[in-house]
Amino acid sequence: MTAQLDPALVVGNKVDRRRIIVRGIVQGVGFRPFVARLAAALELSGHCGNDDSSVFIEVEGPRSAVDSMCRRLRNEAPPLSVIVDIQIDSITPRGDRGFRIVDSRHLGNARTLIPPDVATCTDCLLEFTDPADRRYRHPFVNCTNCGPRFTVITDLPYDRPATTMAIFPMCARCRLEYDDPADRRYHAQPISCHDCGPRISFRKDGTSVTGDADVLRSVQDELAAGRTVAVKGLGGFHLVCDATSSAAVARLRDRKRRQHKPFAVLARDLRTVDTICRVDDVAADLLTSPARPIVLLPSRPKAFVAPEVAPHLDELGVLLPYTALHHLLFGPDTPPLLVMTSGNRTDEPLCFDNDDALHRLSDIADAFLLHDRPIAVPCEDSVLTTSRGRVVPIRRSRGFAPLPVALPAPGPVVLAVGAEVKNTFCLTRQDYAFCSAHLGDMGSLESQRAFERSVEQMTAMHAVTPELVVADDHPGYSTRHWAQRYSDALDVPLRTVQHHHAHIASLLAEHGRTRTAVLGVAFDGTGYGCDRTVWGGEFLAVGPNILDAQRAGHLRSFWLPGGDVAVRTPARVALALLAEAGIPATAELACSRALDDTERALVDSQLRTGTGCARTTSVGRLFDGVSALLGVCQRASYEAQAAIELEALARSAARPIPLDIAVASDVLDFAPMLDGLLTAIRAGADAAELALGFHHALATATAELATRSARERNIPTIGLTGGVFGNRLLSGLLQTALENSGFEVLTHNTVPSNDGGLCLGQAVLGIAMTSRG
Ligand code: ZN
Ligand code: ZN
Ligand code: FE
């Protein structure tokens, strides 16, 4: 007589078949090979494949093994995958043998997520540096875990023919690797080698050099001689020169007509970064992360980087090589530090096509390093920094775009067009918000065309048509005009939203808190206010319905003499602040000396009469004015220069000189601070200590007004947003003060606090509008 079998065991050993649908970033990240390996290990039969929106899997075998498969799918997924959702259904067993990867299926409706570009992985670098390997020094080495993605994908599903690698037929050896489930290049779509991959070439003065060794020698010779080479990379061109040579950097600045705006530096390796900057663990992780962003780091005194790289600043933007070609720039005679700045003419979009670059960069670059793999979508480098151990995004682009931000619920398809400078746009589909790569300033026609192309490309890739278009309230923004034309052409509604309301909505959206009431502090340079003046020092109570916003306070307003000219001339802003406070601008002040008699007379008359002036509450401008008063920066050659240099100066101070920004009802009044500042300047006080004192005064007053407004409304959460919070000294002081008062503080960690993150907020406001009707 046999013992009764345990029913659980019987059930456990029953043959089971399940269909599993995995959604998220599951294509181009080695997901199918991972599934195949898992199935083999668990001795399951079935198949898996890609469709437009997901990886579909069918597995069959003992129930316990199938259960284990379902569990391990989630827990052991490849490092670059992002699983959003797994759907599992039991189906009838079919008794097939073995497990295989089947062809991709086009469903034609839903679309998958496109992965971002990934820096060359350690395994590939080992091959790249191994003389015995067949990919030794191959400029395009990549595998299932690394290489180009977003910038080579032309259509979905993500497969070789739908990439710009389609024009390079695989050689027999690459084909074997591509087809072998045990190979680490199994189904690596951009796979290539010296025999079948893209080719590099060198161009100078109309002559062309080919052959990897000769090309690289020519490039390295140019760099060693202090000349500028335009290098075609992953998402576009860079202008590259010796970062240790003042002459080389100064010449590039001159040719690019870029006076002061800091350049990023490409360092040969992490050790080299450590010789020029202080690198903590968080920063080291960022520098070596698969996204390989530019990271702003505190520079070491007397670092051997030319001072022209980042004039007047105490930080450097540094990055490490993220493609094999970047590693190849460093030869035995090449400097270990290279300037690596966007390959464009100032105010124009990035060059990403060989002919276009040869044409547009001809009077900036001495020579060109080209390759013949087309770039499907241009994508600039991302810029990040850290504050209090957390990531602070400055520009979200390569390595992050086009990863979506998850929304709390599925909604309509909304296109939000962003602002005007540092522009990005956002497209929502279901419960995802897709923010574009960085597109830059929308001032030029070329930029607007690039914007339009990018919108077309993204809507086509997602196969959607927007049901609503959202733009900024500002009647002068070219994005707003474009949005008007676009919504007319599509016959869909256009809604506009207030700039600072959108900043706060963006902050809530990235934290998944769009139904949270928040007291938002939105400090930036410029935003069109509800009263048609220039806002930029705003306290807005938002929510719990995200559409409800109430102005709870602001910076004391003052005249901005000459609009855009004032933005470029901090000295004018300083005079305006003094006039507002009723303090005479005496001749010995740095800001007075900065203007000649004609300009000074013009500004005085503008401030007296209000002609050509705009009223503003901009904290960005307050920074400009204080920067000019302290003699730091009188004329700015790039956005926020005066404020950035003021922050750098403040960081060098040992202690702050106390200053006082008054909180009068719901207004921050800078008048007493200016009084104190001028008294101290006349007494010969240290400018750095005053700069630090100003940061402390602003943090203290902001904390006081924010906490009071929040308490009055029973709001336990305070949000910090707007470009001014790129200033980590201010945001750090403010966060500490707010947290010490018992508030929860939200800051940006996913999208930038500046206008580069605005589109996300516009999009979620648009979604809320459609649901309200
Ligand atoms: Zn790799
Ligand atoms: Zn090959
Ligand atoms: Fe803004």
Describe this entry's structure for a reader.
The protein has about 775 residues and is α/β, with parallel strands linked by helices. The protein is about 35% helix and about 20% strand. The protein has 24 helices and 30 strands. The protein has an eleven-stranded mixed sheet with strand order 7-6-14-8-9-13-10-12-11-15-16, with helices on both faces. Fe (iii) ion (FE) binds next to helix 14 and strand 22.
Write a brief structural summary.
The chain has 24 helices and 30 strands. It is of the alpha/beta class.
Q: Please summarize the sheet with the most strands.
A: 11 strands, mixed
Estimate the global geometry from the Cα principal axes: globular
The main sheet orders its strands as 7-6-14-8-9-13-10-12-11-15-16
- Residue windows where pLDDT falls under 50 for at least 5 positions: 1-12
Number of strands: 30
- How large is the share of residues in beta strands? 15-25%
Let me know the average pLDDT: 93
Name a few traits of the molecule.
773 residues, alpha/beta, 11-stranded mixed beta sheet, 24 helices, binds zinc ion, binds fe (iii) ion
Helices and strands in order:
Blueprint: H1 7-13, E1 15-25, H2 31-41, E2 45-50, E3 54-62, H3 63-75, E4 82-91, E5 99-101, H4 122-128, H5 172-179, E6 200-204, E7 207-210, H6 212-224, E8 229-232, E9 237-242, H7 246-256, E10 264-267, H8 270-276, H9 281-287, E11 294-298, E12 315-319, H10 324-328, E13 337-342, H11 354-360, E14 367-371, E15 383-387, E16 390-395, E17 404-411, E18 414-416, E19 426-435, H12 445-462, E20 468-472, H13 478-490, E21 494-497, H14 499-510, E22 518-528, E23 534-542, E24 549-555, E25 558-561, H15 564-568, H16 570-581, H17 590-594, H18 597-609, E26 613-616, H19 619-629, H20 641-651, E27 662-664, E28 667-669, H21 671-682, H22 687-712, E29 717-721, H23 728-740, E30 744-746, H24 758-772
Parallel strand pairs: 2-5, 8-14, 10-12, 11-15, 18-20, 20-21, 22-29, 24-28, 29-30
Antiparallel strand pairs: 1-3, 1-4, 2-3, 6-7, 6-14, 8-9, 9-13, 10-13, 11-12, 15-16, 17-19, 18-19, 22-23, 23-24, 25-26, 27-28
Helix pairs in contact: 14-24, 16-18, 16-19, 16-21, 19-20, 20-22, 21-22, 22-23
This protein binds zinc ion (2 copies) and fe (iii) ion (FE).
One zinc ion is lined by residues 121, 123-124, 142-143, 145-146.
